[in-house]
Amino acid sequence: MNLRELESFNAFMTYGTVSKAAEAMNISQPMVSRMLANLEKSVGFALFIRKRNQLVATEEAVQFHYTVLRTLNGFRDLESSARAIANQQLGSIRIAAQPIYVDTYLLDVIAKFKAQHPNVAISITDSGMEGVLEMVTRRDCDLGIGITLDLMDRDVAMTPLAQCRAVCLVPRDHRLAGFETIDIDLLRGEKFVELTIGSPLRTKVDYIFQIAGRLRHIAVEARTVRTISRLVERGVGIAISDPFAALLVDQDRVVARPLTPEISWDVALFHANRELSNVQRSFLAFLQAEIPHLRAEGCVL
C-alpha cells in the first residue's frame, strides 16, 4: 500500500462513492477504482462488497478507516513540521551564557526572536566562562555567549559579536565620578567590590595591579556583575566591571567611567565545530542585530 491509495480510500469512506471520491481528489474514476483494488489486495481482507455495480464498505473497512485517518493526520503533521523547520519556526536552542549577558543582552534578543519564532523552544543556563566553554565542548548546549578575554585554545568555533572595554563603576557622589577616564593610579586606597577569583576579568585586573605594584583592598567578592553593581549603588566600594553593568545599575546613583590601562575583549558566540542549524543561524542574526542598540547604550565599541 502507498500514501495515494490510503488517500483514495479515505476519500471513498468520506464521500461514499467512487465518483465523488474521484471528484474530491481531482482524478478519474478508473484511477480511484484501481487504487482501491490495489489497497484491498494489500491489506488481505475485504474492504468492499459490490451491490448493484457500487462499492459498499465492509465493517472491516470502517475499522480500518480509523487507523488510516490517524496515519494521514500523522503524515500531515510531518509535512507541517518539515515546513516549520524549513521556515525556522520549529526547533529548540539550548543557550549557556555568562550571567551578565543573561541579565542584559539576551533578554531583548530572546524577546524579539520569540516574537517571530514563537514555536522555537529556548532554554538558558547561566555559568561562568569556564562552564560555558565546557558545556559547548560537551555539547550540553547549542550556543554559548561569553567573552574572549585571555581565552585558552578550545575545540570550539567562535563568532565575535562586538568589542567591549572594562569600566570603573563608582557612586555618583564619589570623588572619582568627575573624571572622564579613571587611571589605576587614582584608585589608591579605594575599597573594591570584585568578581570572585577565577573569572577572566578578575584575573586580568589582578594581573594589571600586580604589575603596577599596587595592592588592593577587596571589600566584597561576588559571583555576578548584578550583585557587584548593587553593592556599588550602596556605597560598599567601587568595581572594575563589564560595561554591560551600566544596564543594571541605577544611573542616578552610579556612573561608569573608562579605565586605563585599557582592558578589552570581544563578546562572542561559541558553538561546536559543526554547521549551525537554520534556527541557530537565525538566532545569531538577532544577536548581531542587537549590537547597534548596545553601542548606543555605550556597552560595546
Automatic annotation (TrEMBL):
<comment type="similarity">
    <text>Belongs to the LysR transcriptional regulatory family.</text>
</comment>
<dbReference type="GO" id="GO:0043565">
    <property type="term" value="F:sequence-specific DNA binding"/>
</dbReference>
<keyword id="KW-0238">DNA-binding</keyword>
<dbReference type="Pfam" id="PF03466">
    <property type="entry name" value="LysR_substrate"/>
</dbReference>
<dbReference type="InterPro" id="IPR036390">
    <property type="entry name" value="WH_DNA-bd_sf"/>
</dbReference>
<keyword id="KW-0804">Transcription</keyword>
<keyword id="KW-0805">Transcription regulation</keyword>
<dbReference type="GO" id="GO:0003700">
    <property type="term" value="F:DNA-binding transcription factor activity"/>
</dbReference>
<dbReference type="GO" id="GO:0010628">
    <property type="term" value="P:positive regulation of gene expression"/>
</dbReference>
<dbReference type="InterPro" id="IPR005119">
    <property type="entry name" value="LysR_subst-bd"/>
</dbReference>
<dbReference type="Pfam" id="PF00126">
    <property type="entry name" value="HTH_1"/>
</dbReference>
<feature type="domain" description="HTH lysR-type">
    <location>
        <begin position="1"/>
        <end position="58"/>
    </location>
</feature>
<protein>
    <submittedName>
        <fullName>LysR family transcriptional regulator</fullName>
    </submittedName>
</protein>
<dbReference type="InterPro" id="IPR000847">
    <property type="entry name" value="LysR_HTH_N"/>
</dbReference>
<dbReference type="InterPro" id="IPR036388">
    <property type="entry name" value="WH-like_DNA-bd_sf"/>
</dbReference>
